[in-house]
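Human: Cast an eye over this sequence-structure pair and say how the chain folds.
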Amino acid sequence: MKNKKINLLRLLGFVLAAGTLLIASNCGGTTSSSEGADKSAKLTYVNWAEGVAYTHVAEVVLRDKMGYDVEITSADVGPAYTAVAQGSHDAYMECWPNLHQDYLSKFEGDLVSLGNVYEGTATGLAVPTYVTIDTLEELKGNEDKFNGVITGIDAGAGMMKKTENELIPAYDLDIELLASSGPAMTAALKDAVENKEWIVVTTWKPHWMWGRWDLKFLEQSEENMIWKEGDIEIIGRVGLEEEKPELAQFLKNFYFTDPQLAALMLQIEESEEDVSVEAEKWVADNPEIVASWIPESAM
């Protein structure tokens, strides 16, 4: 009888121990799952002033405030969309829907919108205010004063395609669209302004150039409205929201007002420090804005 009691106690102890191990295993599994969550972010952007500025801010917040391993890559528009659509990158940081419909149509089904990062864009051709024309129609007949060229940005940009395929034919201009890059365009604009030369450039808002020089958009005619106001979206790869929900939520929360983005861009442009250093300063100086972006799960 005594041996039976001992065996029963041993059996009870075994059951309790097994239960404890099972509970610990389940709890440990939950912890492991959380600890094993993919805390990486691969973001791509184009070398345009606003995207450069806020993508570097996103990198700092993800890395320093949320513990992510972050990789940001500059690319032309087409390769940036391709990288996200094919899944090698998590998100493209600067989709202009009213200019990028060809890419959005091409990769339909492989991309998801993560919402606007900025609202109220403007695009078009601009000249310094000392240039004595005010409309696109007045470009005709004055092409030689601009050395026969419109100074543009990278060839794959939506505004370049609209200028080449729509604006130049619509206004019957005898002028060449010169592809370059965002920085090359602003360098050419800087030289022209310093020498009071005539120059016409493809440009947009938001951009720091509007705070640096006195510029004006050339007005469109009612018959040929090429440019419209719009927004800037962040575009993610399919599956991002399921595989990296915290990252996806951060990118959905990530948003700049016009004054916030204008101040950030001008801070970066006027500094001799690297853009990443200025991004770190901006994050440190704007804790309330940063906190509004970070998902509760990361706090």
